[in-house]
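Each record in this resource describes a single protein on a pair of labelled lines. The shape at a given residue is found from the number at the same position. The record below illustrates this layout:

***
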Amino acid sequence: MLKEIRIHGRGGQGGVTAAQLIAHAAFKEGKWVQAFPHFGAERRGAPVKAFIRISDRPILLHSQVYNPDYVMVLDPKLLQAVDFAHGLKKDGMVIINTVRKPEEIALADRKVAAVDATGIALEADLVVEGAPVVNTAMVGAFAKATCEVKLESVIEAIKEAWPGGVGEKNAEAAKLAFERVTIGRGGRDE
């Protein structure tokens, strides 16, 4: 059982941290994991990718993820800017930060999980330099949508990364996203 995840975000949104949190949560559950970023000389706001592998056996692959089981999109504007679904397995799922419903996303009948991670970040007061930080909400949505990690493991990983009040806020964002994510099928391409 090897599952591969690709995260699309923008520099500064916490995509790399989201990958590390998912990997840490899976590791806590006794799984083998990898988490690593892919970026060059990008700056804050530029598109970036991060990758995760989760397995019940040692992972011998050391390449980027080209055919993911899951794709996470942290910034809804990236839906038009990058080919985020490239290589997604036929039975794969896309987890998107959006206010839209899954059927409103043009993904030709793909499995889609939609959550307003931006709204949740604002509600939880997770704002850095004026921008909502959506990564922990997206990790909570990932846990619910995929069942690859448990919410409890996600919460533990978050609180270990940020002890105290900051960890509590991030844990609350993950819980809210876990409760609010909507799962369905994408609509037809227009």
Notes: The domain at 2-184 is CATH 3.40.920.10 (Pyruvate-ferredoxin Oxidoreductase; domain 3). Strands lie at 2-10, 32-38, 47-55, 70-73, 93-97, 111-115, 127-128, 131-132, 182-185. The first strand starts at residue 2 and ends at 10. The chain has one domain: 2-184.
